[in-house]
Amino acid sequence: METFATLRGLRVLVTRPADQAELLCRLLESHGAEVVRLPMQAIEPTRQEAAAARALQQARDAWVWIFTSANAARRARSLDAGVWPRCIAVGPATAAALEQIGIDSVVSPTQQHNSEGVLAMPELQDVGGRRIVLVTGEEGRNTIETGLGARGARVERIEVYRRVALPHTPEALAQAVAAADAAIVSNGEALQQLAQRMPADARATLLGLQLVVPSRRVVELAHELGFTALPLIPEQIADAGYLHCLERWWDAGRRDSRMTEHHDDTPDLVAAAAAADAPAAGPAAPPHAAAPRTHGGWWLLAALLMLALLGVAGWQAYRWGSAWLAQQDERITTLAQSLNAAEAQIDRLQTRLSDQAVATQRTAAELARVPERLQAQDQAIGELREELGGGRARVQLALVEQLLLLANDRVQVAREVAPAIAALDAADARLAALKDPRLFELRETVSRERAALQSVVQPDTVGAALVLSGLIARAPQLALATQVPEHFETKPPQAVPPPRDAGAWARAWAAIKRALASAFSVRRSLSPAPQLLSVEQTELIRQVLMLKLEATRVALLRQDAASFRELCAAAEGWLDEYFHAGDPAVAAARAELRRLQALQLQPPLPDISRSLSLVRGHLEPQPQ
Predict the structure, then answer these.
(1) Per-residue pLDDT at 523
(2) Which residue, of 60, 78, 202, 364, is most buried by count of CB atoms within 10 Å of its CB?
(3) Phi, psi of 245 (to 5 degrees)
(4) pLDDT band for position 13 (50/70/90)?
(5) How many C-beta neighbours within 10 Å does residue 403 have?
(6) Sign of the torsion formed by the C-alpha atoms of 402, 408, 414 and 418
(7) What is the Cα–Cα distance from 393 to 254, expressed in whole angstroms?
């Protein structure tokens, strides 16, 4: 393995679970760091593993799945190997885990890799009415669940794993902390366990470690626990992100150390240079030869003096520049600390809001369990009353059983809704008189069955019978298609009289034609000649129609739906065959028969047998 010395001399404590920390530990060791492995937790399957698998399978039609960790992604795939909907990861590590198990097109936040970053994603702003599944671990944060629920989404939480604390001894914890300069803590629970189980004499060493944590929420927790150094947060919550964060911190510490040593050694170097440049004293020169030598020495002395002045000025400028840079660095550090403090304050407020939401949810859960507790108390009270009341309740329940049996008989055999409702009312009155809390479910079932019977739409048989009576009364006046007229009236054609100046033969011939025209009538018709009916036949046709209508009314009153529809159709066919189709009265009669054929005489009736099963269950002897 190729190694880089960027972390040489640094000792790093890693608290990740053992099966997830090895790649990070090898990466740190490849860059020269000395790794102290101290897993604080282990990842185990949830206690409700079968229920979680069923929930995942039933949630495949959800709009989106949100995964809060790589552990959630891997455990969910081990529970459900089917086709998943679109997935959102809380960070790049979770996204990489989803891609490794074969999930494509995974999206994650681009700014904050936490719950707040997920809530800020544009895809999750308009989620009203959508079904969203949150795949996470037990006892995890509910910030995403609360935030999406406030936007109108139907959020379903599925817990697929749990974190279990490992049983390290206090001595082992103190020894591991003493052998480290910095610590990578994967979550707030691990940090809190480490602080709570640390011996008192090693607590100061722990609080002096430089922490590298995944979120500002853990930064706030470290501040509350008393850690002196401001924890570092990687830009990317991944192995490479932790490595780069430690490299910057370690390199900055070494630069500060070298700058301090350089500042301390520089004055000595300048003094040594000034001492080396000072001229040595020599013997005095003769008078005649002293002039030229003295002139050259002065120039050399002036040059050395200028060099010394320039060195002092440069040193002073260096000191001033270093002091100015240090002042600016101090200001930047102060601003960064203020910014981190403000962000930590914001995170504390958000955490408090989340804690309040959790408390509200827990209160709601407690309130939801109140009916169960009341039901248990009612059950106990009912049992006590049963012991005190003796067999009186069983007699009443036997009567209730008979009433419910009568109601079922009326519905299933006679198809009579009103008597069944009356029997259910009587049964409910007897149950109410018992005042037994154990019978509340039975009374509720009786009420639902009574409401179901009352909602059945009953056909208007009285109105239909009146319509048929009217048709029977109007049948003798309906016009038949063909019938023999009671008398004939001859209408001789109007013959054209001969002109006045016609001769005798012409007038005689005109008289003969008028006589013949009055005796015969010849007409041209393209349609077949209708068959004329006698009075007896006409009466018989009307009597048959009346019998068909009367049989239809009898079938209606007997609630015989099949015979009713057949007789209606037969009466309509009789009208079509023997009565005048263009007559308004005949057309109205045909329309009434067609409307009656659509009448539903036997609507579907509800099943009311559950109440009978419940009362029989109460009557059966209970096992001791």
Answers:
(1) 57
(2) 202
(3) -65, -45
(4) very high
(5) 23
(6) positive
(7) 88
| Residues 172 and 200 sit within 8 Å (Cβ to Cβ) | no
Amino acid 258: pLDDT: 61
- CB distance 574 to 550 below 8 Å: no
- d(Cα 422, Cα 450) in Å, to the nearest integer? 9
Q: What is the pTM of this model?
A: 0.43
**What does DSSP assign to residue 483?**
-
- State the pLDDT at residue 534: 76
Distance, first Cα to last Cα, the chain: 72
Instruction: Give the integer Cα–Cα distance in Å for 545 and 430.
Output: 53
The amino acid at residue 82 is G
Measured between alpha carbons, how far is 566 from 543 in angstroms, rounded to an integer?
Answer: 19
Chain segment 516-571, per-residue pLDDT in tens = 665 555 555 555 445 566 788 888 888 998 998 999 989 888 878 888 889 999 98
Burial code of 291-320, b = ≥16 C-beta within 10 A, e = fewer?
eeeeeeeeeeeeeeeeeeeeeeeeeeeeee
Q: How far apart are CA 75 and CA 52, in angstroms?
A: 10
| Kind of pairing between the strands at 41-45 and 154-165 | antiparallel
Judged by DSSP in three states, 367 sits in helix
Task: Please report where in the chains the tokens 């015989």 appear, as a residue.
Answer: 560
Q: Which residues have a Cβ under 8 Å from the Cβ of 253 and sit 6 or more positions away? A: none
**Predicted pLDDT of residue 433:** 86
Q: How far apart are CA 315 and CA 272, in angstroms?
A: 13
pLDDT at 573 over 50: yes
- State both tokens at 532: 């004329």
Closest CA to 112 of 335, 336, 334, 346: 346
Residue type, 413: V
Q: What is the pLDDT of residue 223?
A: 92
Instruction: Give Cα 542 distance to the centre of its chain.
Output: 69
Angstrom distance (rounded) from CA 550 to CA 579: 18
- CA 223, CA 231: separation in Å to the nearest integer? 9
For residue 308 the two structure tokens come to 């010394």
* Cα gap 49→72, rounded to integer Å: 13
Strand, coil or helix: what is 214? coil
Lateral strand order in the sheet of 34-37: 34-37, 11-14, 182-184, 210-212
User: Are the CB atoms for 162 and 137 separated by under 8 Å?
Assistant: yes
Mean pLDDT score of the chain: 81
Please, where are the H alpha helices in 455-534? 461-474, 504-519
Within 10 Å of residue 69's Cβ, how many Cβ atoms? Answer: 23
